[in-house]
Specification:
The complex is a heterodimer of chains A (224) and B (215). Chain A has 224 residues and is mainly α. Chain A is 60% helix and 0% strand. Chain B is elongated, with a radius of gyration of 19 Å.
Amino acid sequence: MDDYLHDAHDDAPGELPDEPLEPSLLAAAREYHRPPELPREAIWRAIQAERRAARATRPVPRRWIPWAAAAAALLAVGVGIGRLSLRTDPGTPVANWGPSAPAPRVSAAAYRLTTLEHLGQSEAFLTLFRSSVRTGGQERLASATARQLLATNRLLLDSPAATDRKTRVLLEDLELVLAEIAQLATDARPDDRALIREGMDRDGVLSRLRTEVPAGTTPTRGDL
Amino acid sequence: MPLARQGLRARPPVPEQPFEAPLCQRAVRPGTPHAPEPVDDRELIGRVLAGDPRAERELYDAHVDRVFRLSCRIAGDPHRAQDYTQETFIRGFRRLADFRGESALSTWLCAIAVSVTLNGLRSQRRARDREVGLDEAPALGTRTVEADPDLKVRMARAIDGLPEGYRTVFVMHDVEGYTHEEIATALGVQPGTSKAQLFRARAKLRTALADFARD
């Protein structure tokens, strides 16, 4: 937490005798800043008021905007993958791209970048989906977006991006979730959405995506 | 599935008389209207995240006593402790989706409470420097401003005079009954650091209150 707690000697305390304070001192210490009766309801009311105020001042986005943004960003990722898969080094014979020839370093970085972008998009999409579980009404758009993400996901699973075991497992788990959402019908029952959400929670897909793509650190193409 | 890695159990609050043996055990106060039943944190968190207002209240009831006590002990001002407790839960609810289950929910909330409280105190301290080196503490005892200060007053002064890190660990361990593991998690340090801080805090208190310790 704070540097003040760290001391070069503190982490190696050796055999410090765990000797409690003398009873009289301990009894006096227990009187130190003795808490009064807990004002339980007053604190709860204040918390509720504060949270209501925060919700009221938060701008309510139009519901279609984030979905449309997710779909548009998805298209950009798809285009990026397409370009990557077509790109070859003009100075390198095609025969050198066989399994025995090491791929150029930039290629691995590009795949990693694309994977991160895809995971970032998936995380945004699943977060949106998760928050819309209770309300519903966006099944068609969610299903369409999931299908596009699914296509990208499968491309990545078949690409060198999936050689890393952790990434491959994440992509495989993500595929299951996306496939379920892609199959959502427009007349899906709330239970269907809740089941998908439970599956996401059970496998920790969203949290693993967040781990893989920490907030604000998703690289852009400019980072290459 | 991070939340499943732990056997999450909401810990009941510290009883009003928390220091009878065994020192570090916490128990539900029988008969109190808000004594929480053991709650499955995972299930509760899931319901809070799903927007269930009753679950929010359950989570609050299960942990508020412990958070308030800790904040009060560290801050020394019930009104400020009330504000810090409120802030702790507001932050807790806001960040609940990020809770990864690597520690118990109660420990996670305590970490927020300690952070909020210490930051609040530091803000206060910008106006007035209330840090007194404990090396000066023996002199405090010889002052004649207060005739024959009793042990409680001397102890309170001596604890106030501890460096912040020592004081926090001492209050959490010896006063509120947290384990070194819980303190380490809440403060982001190793358990060995917590033990060392406690050892030094006790040593300084013994020095400062040597005349009482001899009695």
